[in-house]
Specification:
This protein is of the alpha+beta class and about 425 residues long. The protein contains 10 helices and 14 strands. α8 packs across α9.
Length: about 425
């Protein structure tokens, strides 16, 4: 069956039982919905057809003058995993959307068996044991999004990975081959290890660079478990205010997983897969924080066809990563959100534009707050970067335009 916007769905069998009652202007709809061998296809869900072998929905819905939703007691069972869910939308006294969801299982494998086929490629064949418990509580006041409540937690007890599926999530502990992508297009592959002359171990990267990147991208990386709830809350609030996807809440852990293990398609399945892999890596301590950051700095794009800090430090400053100064390090950190646009950070005379200089001062002040540099170093910061590598030969033409802004710095916990 073809529906709106290319959405396709088909199934072998379905059964529906509904009962509606109305009391004092409130309509309650209770029902049971069963479906077998459901196939769903839409690029926003997954690049492949998604297969749900068995699902059941026990619904307790309500509608009244100013609200509607699913009442507590609503249960969604996917294969053999029961998931509790309740939602509501209210118009008064304020416009507010809320959702609560949870599940708890003594057999962790139930969670992975419940993953629909075609939706989570890297988990095909994955085996685990132990206990898992998930809780979500999200409340969004639509007219005051800054007051959003967002709490999500997946807790484990005696959880163990028995065997990996399609991907070994601990493979990056050792040297591995990385394929640099530009969207769906492979650019080139290179070794993340000693075979690569530009590969730079963690201890040979300037502390200025490490701390500048952490401050600009993910200040609490060394301490968090892969996610920062406050960043999620701020991202949701910002996106609601601007009525578009204006800000993400990705940590370095999430960026690393996206780059190493996943495709670049922007689908619901890819994002959920990213979250689950990050949780496994962080909660099971499959990879140390230092190694995660080392790999991240050695694989991300720093400019057009410039990958890894070894190439970047040579391209911009003709020096090794351990020789980078404070100002050079903050400048490099500013490139991460839009590395291909590095030349637009300079005017035609080769001077940094004011918005970049302001960003550098802001990061240096954050570094002082985090006690990573002394106040005197921030006071003496040079914001007039002098390129000395191949990058010095490429500047923006006088009539070129680009948005003079750098994404807001993340929250410092």
């Amino acid at each position: 069956m073809d529906l709106v916007d290319g959405f396709k769905v088909c199934f072998d069998s379905a059964n529906v039982k509904l009962k509606a009652t109305e009391v004092n202007g409130r309509l309650d709809v209770n029902g049971v919905f069963n479906m077998h061998s459901l196939l769903v296809s839409h690029w926003r869900i997954s690049p492949k057809e998604v297969h749900f072998p068995k699902m059941e929905f026990v619904m307790k819905a309500f509608v009244d003058k100013d609200s509607l939703g699913l009442a507590p007691g609503t249960l969604f069972t996917l294969n053999e995993l029961p998931i509790s869910i309740s939602t509501s939308y209210a118009r008064k006294p304020i416009r507010k959307f809320a959702i609560q969801s949870s599940f708890e299982t003594k057999d962790a494998q139930q969670v992975f068996d419940a993953m629909p086929g075609g939706m989570f490629y890297t988990f095909d064949g994955f085996k685990a044991k132990g206990e898992l418990k998930y809780d979500l509580n999200c409340v969004i006041p639509l007219d005051e999004p800054s007051k959003i409540v967002f709490n999500s937690s997946l807790q484990k007890n005696k959880f163990q990975i028995v065997s990996y599926g399609t991907e070994n999530f601990s493979k990056i502990v050792s040297p591995f081959s990385f394929i640099a992508m530009d969207g769906d297009r492979a650019i080139r592959s290179f070794s993340v290890g000693p075979e690569n002359p530009y590969y730079t171990p963690f201890n040979f990267i300037s502390p200025y660079l490490i701390n500048s990147v952490l401050t600009a991208e993910d200040p609490s990386f060394m301490n968090h478990g892969g996610f920062v709830m406050e960043s999620f809350r701020e991202s949701i609030a910002t996106n609601i205010k601007e009525k578009r996807f204006a800000r993400g809440g990705s940590t370095i852990s999430m960026q690393l997983v996206k780059n190493v293990f996943l495709s670049r398609n922007k689908s619901v399945s890819r994002k959920l897969e990213e979250v689950m892999i990050v949780w496994l890596i962080e909660q099971q301590r499959l990879i140390s924080k230092e190694r995660m950051l080392e790999v991240y700095l050695n694989i991300i794009e720093w400019g057009p066809d410039v990958y890894g800090i070894g190439e970047a430090s040579r391209f911009y400053f003709d020096k090794s990563p351990d020789e980078l100064t404070l100002s050079e390090s903050i400048f490099l950190a500013s490139l991460i959100p839009s590395p291909k646009q590095y030349r637009y950070r300079f005017d035609p005379q080769g001077n940094l534009k004011p918005y970049v200089a302001n960003f550098m001062k802001l990061v240096s002040n954050r570094l002082v707050i985090r006690e990573k540099i002394a106040q005197l170093e921030a006071d003496c910061l040079k914001v007039n970067i002098q390129l000395t590598g191949p990058a010095m030969n490429i500047f923006v033409a006088p009539d070129s335009t680009v948005l003079d802004s750098i994404p807001k710095l993340p929250v410092i916990n």
